[in-house]
Amino acid sequence: MKIVADDKIPYVRECLESMADEVVYLPGKSISRESVADADALMVRTRTIVDRALLEGTSVRFVATATIGFDHIDTGYCKRAGVAWSNCPGCNAGSVEQYLQSSLIILERHLGKRLEDMTLGVVGVGHVGSRVARMAGEMGMKVLLNDPPRAESEHGGDKFCPLETIMEQADIITFHTPLSRTGKYPTYHLAGEDFFGGLRRCPVIINTSRGEVVDTTALKRAMSCGKVRTAVIDVWEDEPDIDRELLASVLIGTPHIAGYSADGKANASRMSVENICRFFGLKAACRIEPPVPPCTVIRAEGMKDALLQIYDPREDCKRLRAEPEQFERLRGSYPLRREKEAYTFVLGQ
Q1: What is the pTM of this model?
Q2: In 3D, which of 330, 267, 311, 293 has the Cα closest to residue 10?
Q3: In terms of Cα–Cα distance, which of 248, 252, 246, 219 is closest to 234?
Q4: Which of 4, 23, 233, 258 could form a disulfide with 208 if both were Cys (CB 3.0 to 4.6 A apart)?
């Protein structure tokens, strides 16, 4: 059995090599039809476009993407070609929650307004959005939920609200939708000219979903004319060739790493390996666990300060602003980040 894997997927080498006869590691963008011609399985991230151009005429039978999103996979072609695939729903939900929590703490201090006095609008309430909503509620925020597909399927009643309600009432609006260009509920440029034109409270915009969910030109115009106060942007249109003007104007801009905690990466790697094993009837002779951080004790006056000690997205922003042309390298060589469960807290010091 032969597996071709993205060389930036961490913690998987021992497992893959214990279950396959041959494993080839390549940069995601370098995975080509020639390199997968005799492969049985692929393990990819979003940088590998899995479509007819890649798969036709190859021996690939299974594709595991170590990501929540799967818009880089032509699922229609895979179905027609008999190629099975899997993604990792919820794998990095805790990591994105951490990114949002730190960003909210920073925004509280930047805006000079308590989180308890602000309303958060969550657009897209799946694995990630649900965790963000719960965390924000625990921090005292009023939370509005918008998810038309869920509202329709669950007969949501008062649980979900129209996007217009969020546009009118939210102080901070955060996007957690998949990217879809067709269908009943497309999300491509969901935050476009009409959305920004309908805002009523000059909110902060946060996007950690997909860059194309937010219209870059419309966002820049909304920020310049005072319809949007500021923004926290982790995902960008046209990655890795991101808009430098937008990067300079947002409060926090990071290189698509909101879900890049070691915990989230380990979850994705583990789920991908399990999916390959399940499909081929294999067993991996290893465990996938994230590394232990150098220091596991956090001392701070309060929990918010402690959480920023663990992870402060402004550091990622500084690195990106210093070298925006190194977007891919900053993602690929991302430093170790653990979630709060890896630490012991000593507060009041």
Answers
A1: 0.90
A2: 267
A3: 252
A4: 258
User: In angstroms, what CA-CA distances link 1 with 19, 33, 37, 43, 313?
Assistant: 8, 17, 13, 14, 41
d(C-alpha 146, C-alpha 173), whole Å: 10
Average pLDDT over residues 287-311: 96
- For residue 88, give the amino acid letter: C
How far lies 93's CA from each of 129, 205, 260, in Å?
8, 19, 10
Q: pLDDT tens, 152-171?
A: 999 867 899 999 999 999 99
Q: Crossing angle, helix 303-310 and helix 93-111, to 10 degrees?
A: 120
Query: How many Å from the N-terminal Cα to the C-terminal Cα in the chain?
Result: 55
Specify which residues 232 forms β-bridges with: 206, 252
**Res 349 pLDDT > 80:** no
User: What's the whole-number mean pLDDT along residues 266-272?
Assistant: 96
pLDDT at 112: 97
Average pLDDT (7-15) is 94
Active-site annotation, residues: 210, 239, 256
3-state secondary structure of 347: strand
